[in-house]
């Protein structure tokens, strides 16, 4: 999950931005004081992107930007009411990657963030998550969450490996032999019934009606497939 550092002192704006970024599956770390941001520089430079206000208590955003640039080339997006051309030019000359004046449109902010994030971060994120209906599976934490009910479930390592295999073969039939070879190896001898039990478990969690599956299908005599 990409981590964004938000350095902004306006409480209502912090809550608005943080809430909407978390809806987009970003992790958000907040500092509301320029001096505190500089004091925690080791945390800031570990983030994937920094959103930085200019007018901060104690130390200005421009000075925070200069400090960040002495340590890291992490992408920096200025977000400021100081929207004059001279301010934007100054921020960019200090090493910022983008400058969005306040007031701003949330959709534009999110698009600018997506453009600034390293593509490898986005690609890695997409391979670590699987969305099935209202459920989200995080392969890195083994967790499944339901956006409707806020239900949380922790899968086993074997279950996650099987979900990954289905995800990599989306829409294609995965044979029982392939599943056994890849997940158990040639030295272990589980029965095909073992795999059936895993499919029944997935249907229990992901299907509205497990007896009429929409996602996890059994292909008689061959194997299984996942379709979204």
Structural class: alpha/beta
* Radius of gyration, taken over Cα atoms and rounded to an integer in Å: 23 Å
Which CATH architecture of the largest domain would you pick?
3-Layer(aba) Sandwich
Helical fraction: 40-55%
Task: Give the helix/strand layout.
Blueprint: E1 3-7, H1 11-23, E2 27-31, H2 34-39, H3 41-44, E3 49-52, H4 61-69, E4 76-80, H5 85-93, E5 98-101, H6 106-116, H7 119-128, E6 129-132, E7 135-138, E8 143-146, E9 152-154, H8 157-168, E10 174-175, H9 176-183, H10 192-206, E11 216-219, E12 223-226
Structural key phrases:
228 residues; alpha/beta; Rossmann fold; Arc Repressor Mutant, subunit A; 2 domains; four-stranded antiparallel β-sheet; 12 strands; 21% strand
Please sum up the structure shown:
The chain is α/β, with parallel strands linked by helices and 228 residues long.
